[in-house]
């Protein structure tokens, strides 16, 4: 058993060798736990600011290209606003992972579009990433190691304890991964035909329109599944408790030796 799913401090002395496993029929989270789950989920996926940073560069690219059909100016504007968003986060000393992921996505899109001379290719790296991610969600869920659980385990301080010790959480993560996979695959099924057949501006506006709604639907379904699941096992608290118990045992042993 790894530190990612270390056993809970036993409930009874005679259970000392047995890790605590949440029963499969354990009750769902209470209202307070559900609120924590909602806040943690929203924060994990970037929140409102993360969504703005995801949409704004592409929106600017499509808007400018719709107006003047100039690929270079559109690309420069998208790249500039993406870098500006990262700079703002750096100045404010905020988390930059979402902004940096946006910069890399925009950079690849700009490179593809400028190399091919086709403005549609600005969206192509993101589409390929979405396709790969959808397959990863579906395959991982089918394999019994759902990707959503791997991603959200550290957020809820449970790491990978849900794999063997919390079957209700594992079931919820599996459902969530299937939901993400199906939603993203559906998005790809819409965009890829348009990429080949629609004109650039229509394709661009549909691609922008499909940025947020599928994401919100997937996050909402994830929250629904997790809200009905048992609360996570806080493995960090467990390890702290074990460390304190070990220190107490060492102190007691030292005191016993002094007395002897």
UniProtKB/TrEMBL annotation:
Region (Disordered): 1-23
Residues that span the membrane, as ranges: 50-67, 73-91, 98-115, 135-156, 177-197, 203-226
Keyword Acetylation on entry: no
Organism domain of life: Bacteria
Keyword vocabulary terms for this entry: Membrane, Transmembrane, Transmembrane helix
Species: Streptomyces finlayi
Protein name according to UniProt: Membrane protein
Keyword Transmembrane helix: yes
């Amino acid at each position: 058993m790894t530190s990612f799913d270390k056993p809970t401090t036993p409930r009874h002395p005679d259970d000392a060798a047995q890790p605590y496993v949440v029963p499969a029929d354990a009750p769902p989270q209470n209202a307070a736990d559900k609120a924590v789950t909602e806040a943690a989920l929203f924060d994990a996926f970037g929140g409102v600011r993360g969504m703005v940073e995801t949409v704004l560069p592409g929106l600017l690219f499509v808007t400018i290209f719709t107006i003047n059909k100039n690929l270079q100016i559109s690309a420069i504007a998208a790249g500039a606003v993406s870098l500006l968003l990262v700079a703002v986060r750096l100045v404010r000393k905020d988390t930059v992972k979402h902004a940096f992921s946006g910069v890399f996505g925009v950079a690849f899109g700009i490179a593809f579009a400028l190399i091919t001379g086709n403005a549609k290719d600005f969206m192509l790296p993101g589409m390929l990433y979405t396709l790969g991610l959808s397959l990863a969600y579906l395959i991982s869920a089918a394999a019994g190691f759902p990707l959503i659980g791997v991603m959200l385990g550290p957020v809820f301080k449970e790491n990978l304890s849900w794999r063997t010790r919390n079957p209700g959480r594992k079931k919820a993560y599996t459902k969530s991964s299937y939901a993400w996979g199906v939603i993203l695959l559906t998005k790809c099924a819409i965009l890829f035909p348009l990429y080949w057949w629609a004109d650039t501006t229509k394709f661009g506006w549909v691609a922008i329109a499909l940025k947020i709604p599928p994401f919100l639907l997937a996050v909402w379904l994830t929250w629904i599944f997790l809200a009905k699941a048992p609360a996570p096992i806080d493995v960090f608290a467990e390890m702290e408790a074990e460390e304190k118990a070990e220190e107490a045992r060492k102190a007691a042993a030292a005191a016993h030796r002094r007395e002897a």
